[in-house]
Amino acid sequence: MTRSMRRDPGPRNSMPRWLLPLAGVAIVLAAAVAAILLTQGPGTGGSSVRPSQAVRSSAASSTGPWAPAVVEGTALPRFTGSGSDPAVGMAAPVVRGASFSAAPVTIAADGRPKVVLFLAHWCPHCQREVPLIQAWLNGGGAPSDVDLVSVVTSISADAPNYPPDAWLKREGWTVPVIADPTGTVADAYGLPAFPYWVLIDKAGKVQGRLVGELTIADLQVVIGQLRGS
Predict the structure, then answer these.
(1) Longest CA–CA separation in the chain, Å
(2) Is residue 46 part of a domain?
């Protein structure tokens, strides 16, 4: 059943640390690495604050020709990065969205785990993360059993590095992209800052959420844990 997703009325706070509440980790080494990351934060720990509701609303009329995504299901609570994450175990909202290319992209339970990465074209941390991940993929790092999906949101013609499709084309980005010009997907997934990661198991349930830049080593730990979930 289609559910109208409520937009967050207040400002978003930067989250320099991240939370990885994944269960069922079978490999001791992966668990040890995850514990270190929980203490120290991923990579530089950098993230960019998502604009307030007022700013997003004023920019909505200048976000380009991209059709808004269709979101179904129950919205996840906003991620805070403190304490246990109430979204863990919830069904991830189903997303059927237009992409910057001809092929539509869907996030839904299909028997495959997913790492969903939310990006903003004006976010310097995202601008560092995208080429890092793409170089890893170009080098054969793409997992065969875990899907990577990206969502480009908080789009504004008045912000740097616009338009986002041109930015991703310059970077040679090969990860499937959902365009989210209205912020509907970001709201449904409880996004507080960028880059933002949502980890979904093969049954379509949320296994964890993270904020901030990840190193490739961080990402590999995440993928390894999703494989075991």
Answers:
(1) 50
(2) yes
Handedness of CA 116, 122, 128, 132 (dihedral sign): positive
Interval 31-77: pLDDT, tens: 333 332 332 334 446 766 656 554 444 444 445 678 889 999 999 99
For residues 148 and 182, what is the distance between their CA atoms, to the nearest angstrom? 22
190-210: average pLDDT: 97
Domain count, the chain: 1
Contact (Cβ atoms closer than 8 angstroms) between residue 7 and residue 75: no
Cis, bond preceding 65 (omega within 30 deg of 0): no
- pLDDT over threshold 70, residue 24: no
- Asked, for residue 114, whether it belongs to a domain, the answer is yes
User: Using CA atoms, how far apart are residues 193 and 58, in angstroms rounded to an integer?
Assistant: 19
In Å, what is the CA distance from 133 to each residue of 37, 94, 126, 137, 138?
Answer: 18, 25, 10, 6, 9
CATH code where residue 167 lies: 3.40.30.10
Q: What is the pTM of this model?
A: 0.78
Residue 118: give the domain boundaries.
Answer: 28-227
